Amino acid sequence: MNALTLWFHKTGSPPTAYRLAGRIMPWCYGLGLVLGLVALYGGLVLAPRDYQQGDAYRIIFIHVPCAWMSLFAYFFMAANAFIALVWRIKLSEVLAMAAAPIGAAFTFITLVTGSIWGKPMWGTWWTWDARLTSELVLLFLYLGVIGLHAAIEDRRQAARAAGFLALIGIVNIPIVHFSVNWWNTLHQGSTVRLMGPSKIDASMIWPLLLMALATHVWFFGSVLARTRIGLLELDGGKDWVRAIALDDDKEAHA
Amino acid sequence: MNDFLAMGGYGAYVWSAYAVFFVVLALEALAPRTTRRRVLADLRGRLKRRDARNEASA
Amino acid sequence: MRSGSTTAACAALVRRDLTLVWRRRGDAANPILFALIVVALFPLALGPEPEQLRRIAAGVVFVAILLAGLLALDTLFRSDYEDGSLEQLVLSPHPLSLLLACKIAVHWFTTALPLIIVSPLLGELLHLAEPLRGLLPLALLLATPLLSLLGAVCVALTVGMHRSGMLLALLVLPLYVPVLIFGAGACNAAQAGLPFAAPLLWLGAALVLALVLAPLACAAALRISLS
Questions:
Q1: Would residue A61 count as lying in a domain?
Q2: How far, CA to CA in Å, does C106 sit from each of A49, A101, A188, C100, C200?
Q3: What is the pLDDT of residue C22?
Q4: What residue spans define the domains of chain C?
Q5: PANTHER family per the record (chain A) (predicted)?
Q6: Which of residues 154-213 of C touch A (CB under 8 A)?
Q7: Which residues of A touch C (CB under 8 A)?
Q8: What tens digit of pLDDT does each residue of A150-201 get?
Q9: Which range of residues forms the domain containing residue A221?
């Protein structure tokens, strides 16, 4: 077995993954926090006032990164679910289920901050256009995955069933988005482009992109934290988990 | 400073949005700690019961 | 047909399911009664003014039938799960997806088709507009099999759970949303005098896709749930 395969198998094993996640996790949280604070300073203090929306536009620096994260988390979850269903890799099962509550949190923040932004700008807390409706459906998909995962006793079967649901749901996201497009959309079109010039000023785009990076890093920190717990649940009967449980007890009573 | 807080009249909206952002993410980051404690406590209970059963049948 | 062949198996399954439904034919009225009650609630809540009811008629009938179908979805696998025949079905040498397709078809025939037949009456209760009298059943004819197929996949994931009602609704709702948007959207467009063929064609395309893929997904989901 060559070195790469060996590394791959070792990392996939629960105790190794647990240790590795434990080492990387605090760095992710720390880096995410630092990048986020710098981005917020750029967005709240340095960036100039928007000529159309005044200072209210500053919600963009949290609303848009969270929207991007809500979609990224779903793809992360679905990709791991696919790997888990096809190759039955335990670690992927745990990673997929760990991403669900984090994705749901980001989706919730997106909807609420969007609603708060919409009130002064559009005059309404809510509207049923394509973007908002499909984001709401995304929240329901996340809640469904979380609910199904919680409802099944056997952890591995639960992860497989919920992962299967996540995969079915991924097809649904573009469908809902396009189907609601029959109605006029109040939400603005894309401003940030991957290739070519973006329609937003440089002083506003760097805090936005930095915050997007910060939320990605934070997401990974959270996924690793939840994965550690998922691994403990999965391997409950094994010696390595028992050692951790007893250590934890000793620490608590020390 | 006051201008900063007022956000050109939109202060209530901007700051409540940022509050939601921080609070939800903080809750999301702290939740695993409670779950971890619960999972380990449950596990210890199960191990104790299993050891007691093994003793009794030994 | 030869006695051990897949065709014979499907025919036997269809005959068995129809017989079982016939033995409890009183229960077949439940979805209809539920839809009737839901439709009746709207004039009670909004007031009996015909113009106001006419504007929401098609959408309300669609939602009522969707909800009635959702409640009926539980009966698809429940009794077979409880007496062990579902496991036998999964273990049989015949393609599970084909057998499930037959089950879903019988289920649709016995729960959704009566609802479609009753839909003009439901529409009349809400003063449904004249041009929609034929369109509403047609849209339902395209939408309800889709709802049954998508619903079957979700029921397969929750089979055997005791109180899966709310969870099932949560799972199935995101998948039902586009079907509702297109189906009711076609009716509302027709009512406004706008072209309505496109949403119906989209529904048709989705139905064809679901006819092929949903039984396969349902079989995979069932294998996961029963593993």
A1: yes
A2: 63, 38, 46, 10, 24
A3: 93
A4: 24-226
A5: CYTOCHROME B_B6 PROTEIN-RELATED (PTHR30071:SF1), HEME EXPORTER PROTEIN C (PTHR30071)
A6: 154, 157-158, 161, 164, 167, 170-171, 173-175, 177-178, 181-182, 185, 199, 202
A7: 133, 137-138, 140-141, 143-144, 147-148, 151-152, 157, 160-161, 164-165, 168-169, 172, 175-176, 179-180, 182
A8: 999 899 999 999 999 999 999 888 887 777 666 444 444 444 444 444 567 7
A9: 27-188+203-236
| Residue A198: predicted pLDDT | 54
Least CB–CB distance from A160: residue in C170, C171, C224: C224
In a domain, A56, yes or no: yes
Residue A222 in contact with residue B24, Cβ under 8 Å? Answer: no
Q: Which residue of B has its CA nearest to A220?
A: B29
Q: Which chains touch B (3 or more CB pairs under 8 A)?
A: A
Which chain A residue has its CA at the smallest distance from B20's CA?
A109
pLDDT, tens digit (0-9, with 9 covering 90-100), for C154-181: 999 999 888 888 899 999 999 999 999 9
Rounded to a whole number of angstroms, the distance from the CA of B58 to the nearest CA of chain A is 20
Q: How far apart are the first and last CA of chain B?
A: 73
Q: What's residue A185's pLDDT? A: 41
Chains C and B touch (3+ CB pairs under 8 A): no
**Looking at chain B from residue 1 to 58, which residues have their Cβ under 8 Å from any Cβ of chain A?**
4, 7-10, 13-14, 16-18, 20-21, 24-25, 27-29, 31-32, 35-37, 39-40, 43-44, 46-47
Exposed/middle/buried for residue C194 (C-beta within 10 Å: 0-12, 13-18, 19+): exposed
C-alpha C5, offset from chain centre: 29
Q: Predicted ipTM?
A: 0.88
Q: Do A164 and C178 touch (CB under 8 A)?
A: no
Tally of residues, chain A:
254
Q: Which pLDDT belongs to residue A252?
A: 72
Q: Which of C143, C184, B5 is nearest to A58 (CA)?
A: B5
